[in-house]
Specification:
The protein is α/β, with parallel strands linked by helices. 39% of the residues lie in helices and 15% in strands. Strand 9 and strand 10 (259-260) form a beta hairpin.
């Protein structure tokens, strides 16, 4: 009766476990100021272009003419067109009906699995965003792990030794912050096409890319439209972690076993999803306006500055790390059990990060800090790090 695959999952989701430990600590130590650099949650409020658009939408909703009930499950045209226009910046041409508005990348990355057989083999990188792994464990799929380690710059390349049907790529990567160049993604696309695999490309951190060699979208690579689905979210791009809005792109040209995946996804979404609220979609549309882009870029610069503060502190302390350039995450070598390091930081300097082990076996002895805290707290956390006996 019950899906027994759940018995193969860890007791709780990574960030739930961190939240549990932090709550226990703060309850026992109410006088201590804890600085949270664990889950990638933003601290800057929504930018003015977004809140103005949402305020206007709320007022519209209070009028007979402007009220919106159920919307299209795949999103309003105004937002799908805004996303399509945004992709033109990367030389990517999308039809609006290839774009599906969602409540964020995490949900769609899990939900997309409805389209695939349970006996498909899955390839993820290790370390990996735990959602890719846990959602496949829930379905009982076989999972292969590609090592993302210092030796390969945390960027594993295709290997003929594993017969993957579904390939997850997150670039820039969570948790390491490494990002694939155009040439490297070309190899992945050609590998997926040659074997009929599907790439699930998570571009949640694309707005943090600085390096011109790093594509913002898998569709910058020719041939990706016949093998890749792309997921993006406004959570990190525009501070929508609590507001919830993202989008998934399923190209018309992606066909497997005679099925057009775009049509299957449309069927799935119209059946199981009632869309993102009108007010939120108006806010999301404003992210892609000229003013919205200017304002969110300022926020990203602020977080990047935090990353630079963390990086320069670690340079001084001789802590080796990667990330922070095309990504909001710093991935450091903690040289010990990563959950022990988590407890040490929490107990001794009241700084919360994410233990690398939560991202897979190669995450052991590593630790992730986010740059999404405030400038003041980031600076204070680094001062506390200097006092830590490592
Ligand atoms: C993270 O910290 O890895 C992300 O914020 C989690 C998420 O986006 O669900």
């Amino acid at each position: 009766m019950i899906n027994k695959n759940y018995a193969n999952l860890k007791e709780s989701y990574l960030f739930t476990e961190i939240g549990r430990r932090v709550k226990a600590y703060t309850q026992a130590n109410p006088d201590k100021k804890v600085i949270k650099m664990g889950i990638g949650d933003v601290t800057k409020p929504l930018c003015k272009a977004v809140t103005d658009a949402m305020n206007n939408a709320v007022i519209e909703m209070s009028t007979k003419e402007g009220f919106h009930g159920y919307g299209p499950e795949q999103g309003y045209d105004f937002l799908r067109n805004a996303v399509a226009d945004y992709y033109k910046n990367f030389g990517v041409s999308l039809k609006s009906d290839e774009i599906f508005i969602s409540d964020g990348a995490k949900s769609d990355l899990g939900n997309i699995l409805d389209l695939f057989d349970k006996d498909c083999n899955v390839l993820v990188q290790d370390p990996v965003y735990p959602v890719y792994v846990d959602t496949n464990i829930m379905d009982g799929r076989k999972i292969y792990y590609a090592d993302a380690v210092e030796k390969n710059g945390y960027l594993p390349m295709p290997s003929e030794t594993c017969d993957a049907d579904i390939i997850y790529i997150c670039s820039p990567n969570n948790p390491c912050g490494a990002a694939y160049t155009r040439d490297m993604l070309e190899e992945w696309v050609s590998y997926a096409n040659s074997r009929g695999a599907v790439i699930l490309f998570d571009s949640a951190y694309e707005a943090f890319i600085e390096d011109a060699q790093v594509p913002h979208s898998i569709y910058e690579i020719s041939g990706a439209e016949t093998c890749a689905i792309e997921f993006c979210s406004l959570s990190k791009t525009a501070g929508f972690t609590g507001t919830r809005c993202g989008y998934t792109i399923v190209p018309e040209a992606l066909v497997r076993d005679g099925f057009e995946l775009r049509k299957l996804w449309l069927r799935r979404q119209t059946t199981k999803f009632n869309g993102v609220s009108y007010v939120v979609q108006r806010g999301a549309e404003a992210v892609f306006s000229a003013e919205g882009q200017k304002q969110i870029k300022e926020q990203i610069r602020y977080y990047k500055n935090n990353a630079a503060i963390i990086a320069s502190t670690f340079d001084v302390l001789g802590i080796s790390y990667t990330g922070g350039v095309n990504s909001p995450y710093i991935w450091l070598d903690c040289k010990c059990d990563s959950w022990e390091f988590f407890d040490k930081l929490l107990n001794e300097i009241q700084v919360v990060g994410t233990p690398g082990a939560g991202f897979g076996k190669n995450g052991e002895h590593h630790f992730r800090l986010t740059s999404f805290s405030t400038l003041e707290n980031t600076t204070e956390a680094m001062e506390r790090f200097k006092k830590l006996k490592l």
